[in-house]
Amino acid sequence: MGVSTLLVVVLAMVFGPLQAYCQRLLVSMTLVRNASATGAYCLDGSLPAYHWNRGFGSGENNWLLQFEGGGWCNDVETCLDRAKSRRGSTRYMSKYEVFSGILSNNVSLNPDFYNWNRVKLRYCDGASFAGDGSFDNGTSLLYFRGQRIWDAIILDLLPKGLGNARKALLSGCSAGGLSVLLHCNSLAKYLPANASVKCLSDAGFFLDVPDISSNYTMRSFYRSLVLLQGIQKNLNINCTSSIEYPALCFFPQYTLKFITPPIFILNSAYDVFQFHHILVPPSSDPRGHWNRCKLNATTCNASQIQILQGFRNDMIGALTFLSEYSRTAGTFINSCFAHCQSESQDTWFAPDSPRIHNRVFCLHAFLFLYY
């Protein structure tokens, strides 16, 4: 082998994976034109949308549906603000989305799902695709139609091949991860009886626990959200009929045992969002004693670390049901200070991704679920 040939081989070995890692897949937006027939509108009245990259080869009849995340709005003021942004209107959304991580079409970066039909469901209702109501005071009009948006998107995709799905994975991160747990059962009802339907919730296991001031801040937030957006009637009826306060079924820990398809929970035990907004929300720390700890976990003092460890224990405890009573569920709970790990290539499948027994963790997890 000559020097020049050897140089080409070495460069290919070094830069080939890097080139694949840096490739960007841009997928155009599809508006759901028939959504208006059922009143399936975004907060501002615009049509809902999704991005679809068609499957091919062995993945032609397999579908991955990814809920977009992005928080919630639990009062009229914040929903009105949200309606003027990409979080509440397709008018302000980018018309092309980068598909990376679990949505990538590159076999070296996403070996399990690269050739599946991959769909990103855009989030514009502010209630994890679960509301069904409206607000109209004669001056301002808001549509709380997340449940109808979910139904409209699925109905739009069924004749495009989803109705013939052999395998389907419903996924999402953050508020989208919560959407997965709220809609996992309903996806199975739309698909053929012999279809394999499974669900992945990434950073969507939001806990109902007291904050450092012993207040249930997130519980209050979710209760007002459920009331404002008319969510309760869309929550799992087995959960709402078995609990004193039905609105609590918006929390995954209460509805988990009523989910029928196999589920996989991917979460950090020290989820950054939950650390900052559930465990130590600004209202619980008016003097900012936790500010340094929030910015850099290595600066947390012994007392703060103990509280964080307690939160981790709460997370593990809430998931005990899966390990003790379910044979079709799985979890991967790591100790990263992170929020959402399946959408980013860095944490989904990269040379320095977290590993178990020298295998990249997400790939290992899904092989466990699917093969």
Automatic annotation (TrEMBL):
<keyword id="KW-0961">Cell wall biogenesis/degradation</keyword>
<keyword id="KW-0134">Cell wall</keyword>
<comment type="function">
    <text>Hydrolyzes acetyl esters in homogalacturonan regions of pectin. In type I primary cell wall, galacturonic acid residues of pectin can be acetylated at the O-2 and O-3 positions. Decreasing the degree of acetylation of pectin gels in vitro alters their physical properties.</text>
</comment>
<dbReference type="InterPro" id="IPR004963">
    <property type="entry name" value="PAE/NOTUM"/>
</dbReference>
<dbReference type="GO" id="GO:0071555">
    <property type="term" value="P:cell wall organization"/>
</dbReference>
<dbReference type="Pfam" id="PF03283">
    <property type="entry name" value="PAE"/>
</dbReference>
<feature type="signal peptide">
    <location>
        <begin position="1"/>
        <end position="20"/>
    </location>
</feature>
<comment type="similarity">
    <text>Belongs to the pectinacetylesterase family.</text>
</comment>
<keyword id="KW-0378">Hydrolase</keyword>
<protein>
    <recommendedName>
        <fullName>Pectin acetylesterase</fullName>
        <ecNumber>3.1.1.-</ecNumber>
    </recommendedName>
</protein>
<keyword id="KW-0964">Secreted</keyword>
<dbReference type="GO" id="GO:0016787">
    <property type="term" value="F:hydrolase activity"/>
</dbReference>
<keyword id="KW-0732">Signal</keyword>
